[in-house]
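fyi for ur records
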Amino acid sequence: MATQTGPHLHFQGNCREAFDFYARTLGGKIVFAMTFGESPAREQTPPEVRNQIIHARLEIGSQYLLGCDAPGDRYQAPQGFNVMAAVEQPDEAERIFSTLAQNGSVCMPLQETFWAQRFGMCTDRFGIPWMVNCAKPPEVAAAAAAAGG
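which gave:
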């Protein structure tokens, strides 16, 4: 079996809400979610965090996102990466981007680029940075790049 990689996202007590949102937005399914209170570490967990997520897995086709609610003293705002949503149709890219950006912030508006029918960058309301990309066929992108954009 080949090695797989996938993002593991950390949240400030709203992992369940975020994963429900991502499942609806991206057409995925939460296949596992366990709270701290359901885990073997229940007795060592403060009562106020027992309903928070210790581990969740969202499957989106053959891809997945993992996530948890980070303990308060260990949470850090995400930086230095984006989660990429690769989309095949421009209208689907527009829907996903506008949904992710709602109540968040837009870093780069969704637009056509030399490599993509649509590309944009935003940070969602949960603080997770996203790129939405609807690629052009490779030969079209290469020709556009060679022509200077």
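Helices lie at 15-26, 90-101, 138-146. thats all i got for now
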